Amino acid sequence: MVEKVLQLKCNCNEYPWGKQGRKSLAATLCEKTPGTDFKLDENTTYAEMWMGTYPDLPSYILATGEDLQDVLDKHPDELLGKRIADKFNHTKLPYLPKVLSIAKALPLQLHPNKDLASKLHAKNPDQFTDPNHKPEIALALGDFEAFCGFKPLKDIERLLQLEPLKHFLPQVKKPAFDDQTLKHVVCAMLKASAENVRKTNDVLTKLPKDAFGKDTYIPDMIPRLSEQYDEADNGTLVALITMNYLQLKEGDSIYIPADGIHAYLSGDIIECMARSNNVLNTGFCPRADRDSVDTFCSVLTFTPHDAKEAILSSQKFDRSKNGKTKLYAPPLSEFSMLATTIGDGESETIGKLGGPTIMIVTEGEGTLKADGKEYKLSAGYIFFVAPSVELDFKATKQIKAFTAFVE
Ligand SMILES: [Zn+2]
Fold it and tell me: Which InterPro entries match (predicted)?
């Protein structure tokens, strides 16, 4: 017999775009896990805490120190449920939730679809470590800025009438500005020389603000992004001229489909994705780290094509007994996410879920009753829960908890 609720300890990676020391929520949540061996260093930047079984940064059972994957391998029927193990054809969790603490822009990226991912993995398994796609959602824990998908075509077309940008348009003028024209523009911006990008950015910042129509943030953002990377970084042009710039508040969420262009800019978020670590980077990173611009351009998808289309709205969750839990269900079926907020002295019950779940408490104090036992809840407490376990929460101080699951 294996316990159905397993408290976990997780780890953080140290990408340079992460927040420094205790400014990083990802790192402080790792540090607050009771009994962890994670040691926070104030001079290190901490980017992402991973919760799950992806081998690059696995989670461990707090009580025994065992790798969560080893325990799932030993007890797949009890911990994953036969239906989920059969559906995904293995004992691995099909999703990977993370906490991200973002101080500056992440590389401009997309996650390849399954077809391309399996080709890239076959060719270069060191860089593309799995054959899976990676749709993802990002749920804001506070103010969150992101570039996500493309602006509507008419807005991009209007910006490209600005003198310094005209040379990115195709030389043979097409009758209509369509997605193929946009692809040409994105590709031209990504291939532009450092000199060209620097000069374009320079001239753009000297234009009067009203030249940018409603996108008056563009001239302000050029120096900000140039300081983070380099004035010659091709990502600046693509992000500012062609992509949606979103300013989200706590509880807002965006969905990134496979092949969808995105770059997160600042904030703390919960992210959840299909089990994959495949990424093509082309901007906001050193030129040497860029994956082929041609590959990037060839798979670009044109959804979302509007800031509104990027938003993933929350829904009422029918198994939330006291209505304190909202559901975020992305269109692809490998995972959904629950966000639970329980005020001082209040309680909440989440009815049985049909598959394995991972839950993290990001703030508050209280208790969880599950499978006949009681567990303390506090920030940095992370649990794996087997299928068909009802979760009874009581808060003594307002609790916020996030649960990734699959059914
Ligand atoms: Zn991503």
Answer: Man6P_Isoase-1, Mannose-6-P_Isomerase, PMI_typeI_C, PMI_typeI_cat, RmlC-like_jellyroll, RmlC_Cupin_sf
